[in-house]
Amino acid sequence: MTFKAADQSEDFIGLYFGQYSNPGSLKFTQQLIGQYWELNCVNKSIEVFYVSFDRDFGEYKKHVEHMPWILLPWQTPFGRKLKMKFNATEVPKFVILRKNMSLLTQEGKEILLRGGAHAI
Questions:
Q1: Most CB within 10 Å of its CB: which of 34, 58, 99, 104?
Q2: Neighbours of 7 (CB within 10 A)
Q3: What domains appear along the chain, each with residue ranges and CATH number?
Q4: pLDDT tens digits along 2-31
Q5: What is the DSSP letter of 38?
Q6: Do the beta carbons of residue 105 and residue 98 sit within 8 Å?
């Protein structure tokens, strides 16, 4: 599965829902870091926002230590609203929005894992 945007120079917003104690989330975090740098080098840009499912602040701090993107504060009301809006009930989940905030896909994780940064 790949998804190509009509405008190849389009900017994107990524919402990454993750949790330190989830092995799949830890693995995807490392993959997303690589994809983040690659995507920002292929005539596109993506700004990622981390939305935490971490159980406590200590877990949150460990998870975000090497993330190169914007971190929503742990347990922020805005983060809870994003979880509800995008039905984020399992982690990891990666939602991709267009720069105008319209939804591109809720299957960003699957797209990146199958096709890499060039799949967007």
A1: 104
A2: 10
A3: 11-119 (3.40.30.10)
A4: 334 434 456 889 999 999 999 999 999 999
A5: H
A6: no
Q: Can you give the pTM of this predicted structure?
A: 0.85
Q: What distance lies between CA 69 and its chain's CA centroid?
A: 9
Total Cβ atoms within 10 A of residue 45 = 15
pLDDT tens column, 75-105: 999 999 999 999 999 999 999 999 888 999 9
62 sits in which H/E element:
helix 57-64
| Beta-strand relationship, 70-71 and 11-18 | unpaired
Neighbours of 19 (CB within 10 A): 20
Rg (CA), the chain: 13
Closest CA to 30 of 69, 74, 66: 66
Cα 53 to chain center, whole Å? 13
Show the tokens assigned to 90: 């399992």
